[in-house]
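Chapter summary example: a protein plus FE2/S2 (inorganic) cluster.
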Amino acid sequence: MTFVIKVNGSGHNVDVDGDTPLLWVLRDVLGMTGTKFGCGMALCGACTVHINGEPTRSCITPIDSIGKSEVTTIEAIGKTPAGAKIQRAWLDREVVQCGYCQSGQIMSATALLASKPHPTDADIDNAMAGNICRCGTYVRIREAIKQAASS
Ligand code: FES
Ligand code: FES
């Protein structure tokens, strides 16, 4: 079945089964490999994208649920004001270690900053709790979010 989805401001026709996860479509059909597959079960956050600005686990989001919603991925998040601040702070604080979780971390952090420009520690903990980092970059992630909020 053909679906028309809007990703990073552009419309795309994709011919897949309706229950195909958005993550599969992004990576395997559209070639946008910045969004990562971690667990496939909504447990790790590696696959986080924004749907209408809300951080969403693309591994469990079927393509037939997208409709006319706006999907934003790591490839375009730097074009948003909050995304640009977060990416700048990530570089300044040298947050990344292996990098595998980091596109998901940045998507969650950007959604937080866009909705709460001056998040508290509790806000940060709450927003980032679903994003797992096996390299343990959590302290730098928190510092970078605080830097982005003050920039
Ligand atoms: S791959 Fe989607 S939450 Fe882990
Ligand atoms: S930087 Fe390696 S898993 Fe997070």
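Key point: The first helix runs from residue 22 to 29.
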